[in-house]
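In response to a reviewer's request, we include the raw inputs and outputs for one of the modeled complexes. The two entities were modeled together in a single run.
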Amino acid sequence: MDAAIDGTFLAILAPFVAAALAPFVTRIAGHNGAWLLALVPAGIFVHYLGFLGQTAGGAGIASTWDWWPAMGWPLSYLLDGLSLMFALLISGIGTFIVLYAGGYMKGHPQIGRFLSFIFLFMGAMQGLVVSDNLITLFIFWELTSITSFLLIGFNHKKEKSRRAAIQALVVTGGGGLSLLAGVVMVQLVAGTSDLSTLLTQPGLLQTSPYYLPILLLFLGGAFTKSAQFPLHFWLPNAMEAPTPVSAYLHSATMVKAGVYLLMRMQPILGDTIWWSTILPIFGGVTLIVGTLLAVRQTDLKLMLAYTTVASLGLLVMLTGTSNEVAIKGAVLYLFAHSLFKGALFMVAGVIDHEAGTRDVTKLGGLRKAMPITFFAAILAALSMAGLPPFIGFIAKEELYLGIWGTSPQFLALTLTAVVGNALMLVIGFAVAFKPFLGAKTETPKPAHEGPILMLAGPVVLSICGLASVIFLSWTGQYLIGPMTSSVAGMPLEANLHLVPAAIKINLILSIITVILGLVLFARLAVLRGAMNGILNAIGWGPDRGFDQFMSGLVISAHKVTRLLQPGQMDIYMKGAFIVTAIAVLVPMIVLDELPAWPEMPQMLFYEWGVMAIAVIGLAAVLAAKNRLTAIAALGIQGFAVALLFMLFGAPDLSFTQFMVETLSVVILALVMTRLSLYQNDHRSPVKTVIDGTVAFAVGGGFFLLLLSVTQQPFNTALSDFFREHSVAIAHGRNIVNVILVDFRGVDTLGEIAVVAVAGLAILALVRFRPKKKLPPLTEADAIAAQKKEAAV
Amino acid sequence: MRTVIFRTTAPYLTSLMVLFSIFVLLRGHNEPGGGFIGGLIAASAFAIYGVACGVPPVRRALVFHPMSIAGTGLFIGAISGIISLFEGVPFFTGLWVYPSIFGVELALSTPLVFDIGVYLVVLGTIASIALGLEEREKI
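The model returned the following structure tokens for the whole complex.
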């Protein structure tokens, strides 16, 4: 662990820098700026490639940058098989996404902003997977929610986009809060939130009495992010986003963050009865629901979105088994899925871009017009269908082997997996073959091949699905093996074979899956009709439930606000002052700590004079008939207090008090003239007495409080420290100022931030204009209102 | 309030007050003063100018919107804390340099930069509130 800023920290920072530069680059170079910008994720990818050898040897690379020791919150990263695989996927696919976005958004006036958001997201996602500390992981986790909100709602003029964006933010943000609570509990139970430390103590959390709440809170985060049923609805709705976003966020990265978290926590929280019950149930249900809903869709992107939901379910299910072979299957499937789903989403985007529609029933015969796209689509779909010789096939072989016969409920799990995978094959074929084969249909745009910017991604990713099998031993040694070891929490080797040595159960299951899938594919239209019938019969779904939840939330928030904020200044002020008086007086009286009455101090004549000025100011306030006079008179009293500070040796305080008094008189007077309130005080005698009592209680309470404070023995530890060190280490003789800008600089930074934000709020209030022009209140109106109130 | 005498003297008064506020800001580390008080003085200077001559001349004189001045101040304040990170010392550690200009040793430090940030935040915020209230037109 060294303290230096090394290359990986720069890699973490790089996407954020690129986000700042992206608008300028596209302003100069147009959409071709994507070529330049894609160098950033490509560079990050190359940087991470360099670690493959180390993680394959089982080493984890960790480094800490303790940027602010007093906070105990260092920036640290941990690269092992798991995080390195994710980092490579994020930067590798990210490179092609940037290129693809350049082609897809060509000529769009806000292409710079779009790329900027993509980079922000990339940075957040990369930070999430390499963080060693759960707190930093959580911060990046929330950043991915926020940036995906910006991306999903990119077409913010469409109402559906806005709804989808808010929905995604509410669901994943809510899950984030759950995760935060879980992280805090881990910190309290384990005494650390560093993953590298936690990973060395397996069993610590599993045996803790707080294990179940911690697990549930983490699952709350992971299940919302990874769209597990019944919280899956935000993901298909998020397809409102431009296709580069869907291809990036909703195939390879953001939705996998939940799976990443589960895999990361598997050695720490996994392998318990709860873990291996909850995860497979939710995962299995999500798998089946996702595929069935996908069958129903005719929109290419929505079909893919629902299969993504299903794939995430499969991954959660496999992770939940906590057995090494199933985990190896999950790791392989995750890798395969990122490649083929990213490619297929981009293919769908190319078709949409060049043919003008994504409706699978309106597309056909595009193979001649778009041969390269067709080629990429076939490769990706075959991998998705789990056919040899693609990585998807290897993944399916391993995962069947991992499920079969390893747990009491293995038959149910196997059945789920077979049906889910068969339906996945149906969708894969429907997306890849339906638009290209058959008779040529009329499309809204005359279809032609997409530009190279948009084809690079799908072609490279789908070829990777094949290449990773051709170099299968390399893939196993450097990617799958290390990642499986990290997830399982023990060193494991991944010996992968394309041709099985013996006919085992997994090969038979694979064959059943393919046959079942082909049969269903032939009956796709029937299946679609049946699903539509069932769903229409149910009529209610979580998506509508979300709307009901949101409107209920808004209504109750409105009610609470009305209750607490009736809109009358009078009530706010009275409430605040009564609470202050109670807070000051009650403890003193109840605990019998009223101060002793002091002796009258010897005062000089000018000190008496200053006191007299203050009293005269107060008398003038009470006597004033006009509000403006009262405000000015209050200023007299304030100046007198400032003079007292000056006489008793606090020049800074007195200085500030003078300025504050002056400005508050000026500002109050300005407010008065602006609001055109009636100038005089029209309170009824009863109200005057009530207000007077409250005022007296607050004033008297503070008098007693200050008196008892001065009667305590004075502790000089702090003032001695400041007097001693002010010049010595902060080079300043004005202790007050040194405290403000040096010793307590961070506090002051917070305070000036508050000042600025409060200023913004006040400015907004000052600028606020009611939509209808209300006639100004006349004095007669005011008196009438007052009488009515008094009567009530 | 817009008497001829007030209107004529207000610009001189304002410029003197702004000058004084900078003086107060800079002496703050050793003598009574500092960014907060300086900012308040400067803000009241502009408030006086606004009362005397109307808001548009003040806005012209300030060039930037007061709220962006406050934002800049906040930025400078935060940056002054971050500088120390590049020196390898913890966040917000005060750093000092003593360049010699024409034979006079000048003490410059990150706390001074931070204090300038405070000054700008207070000046910008209070001035924007006061000017916002003084603008009476669109009621």
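As requested, we also summarize the result in words. Chain A has a mean pLDDT of 84. Residues 159-190 of chain A form the longest helix (32 residues).
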